[in-house]
Amino acid sequence: MAAVLGSILLLSPAAPVRVLVLPLLSGGPGDTPTASEASSLLGHIISEMDGVSCLSLDKLDDKVRSVIRELLRRCGKAPDCQQKIGLLVGAGIIISGKADNLNQGILLDLELLDVGSGKSIARISRTLTGSQLQRAAAIEAMLTRVLFPERLVGSLDVFMQPAGSKVFIDGRLIIPESGPQAHFEKLRAGQHTLRLVKPGYQDFYALVQVPFSGTSRLEAKMRASEKIVQPYSKEVVTKNIEDSHWYEHWWVWTIIGILAAGTTASTLILTR
Fold it and tell me: What angle do CA 229, 233, 236 make, to 5 degrees?
């Protein structure tokens, strides 16, 4: 797949990837409006992507359009047939597939074909739910992941209390000493680990989800480390004296030892 993409994407900015979206098929007669709507949405999203030129069948010459329709009727699902269509219109990528209407959304199955090699780049299957805007965002993320994976990034805002901590993302030191707020751009979309380290405070850990083409927000409040009482300090000695029994004190047995020694000495004198 990487080798196939390399032949497509190693182009100058002046030569965008030309993509042709074939009419999506429907799972049944009742799914025809859904397939038509999904085809239109797919074409609109691709036309808005940087570095991509979306070809429309409606804007082609009548003769070319007739040939394409005949090819689609005879062998539209076959890769070699789709390759002929791509070469006919000068496309670099052909997108085909189907759309089924589900109770909770639309099941979208797509296949991307590299016209130059005639090989499949990727197969995408996704259930689209939510509003039209949310469905469009999901389609854009799917296509970006395949065509331009380096663009699949987002941002993260972190608000820290207190300031002055070391900030690690995915184990790498990013900020040696932070302020109360930090903004991170062009993070790979997906899950990341965040760690804050500051003397006198417990390390702060968090798993953050960075959205594609969006920004996550995290408030990090660090907890002070527990105070460690040094051995033989006044607090320890006082606590031991107050909490222990009378026979556990060292001075009790010192006095008893002195008294015992005195008693022994007196006894010896009397026996002489």
Answer: 70
